[in-house]
Each structure stands twice: as structure tokens, then as C-alpha cells.
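Posting for a labmate who doesn't have an account.
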Amino acid sequence: MTGQIVMPIGDAVAVVRRNNTLYFECTRCSNDYGDTTIGDPKKNSIMRERSIGEINPWNKYAKVDQFVVREYYCPKCGVMISANMQKKDEPIMMDMDLSKL
């Protein structure tokens, strides 16, 4: 970590303090996702969209054409930071808004 940990967010992301500013940082490789004014580190991650049928063969009985799994990864080390299942036509779901910290 390149700063003082203020708050862990799961296993892969932490809020750290550097020079009196709060940043999202990867806990594995110290990748800087940006300061917390961006709201959610997913905004500066890499997203991969997968069919729910790829995730589990039992999902073939669901409405496979209507749902997706969106996975979010650190652009530097590739650790997954988040995943959401949602309808294909829905906008990306933000898990948090820490922009007012």
C-alpha cells in the first residue's frame, strides 16, 4: 500500500490516505483507481461481461438472453474487485458512492 489504510472495501480494494487526500487502491498491487471523488473504483477498472449461461450450466433454464454478469478487475494485476448480475439493458451498477468522504 502506498498510503495509510483508512477503510478496507472487501479483499481487493481499500481507501487510503495520501497527502490528506483519500484514494481507492488495490490491496494486491497498489494500483491507484483515483481519489474517492469518483465515487466507486469500478469506474477505473476493467469490465468483462459474461452470459449467465457461462457462469453455471443450470442457468440455461433462466432467461439467459436477458441477464449478464459484469465482472470488474484491477487493470494492473487482474484481481477481481466486484461482480454484479443484472439485466443486459441496465446501466452499470455502482456498489457505492464515497465521493463525499
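Reply:
Got it, the C-alpha cells are right above this. The chain has a mean pLDDT of 91.
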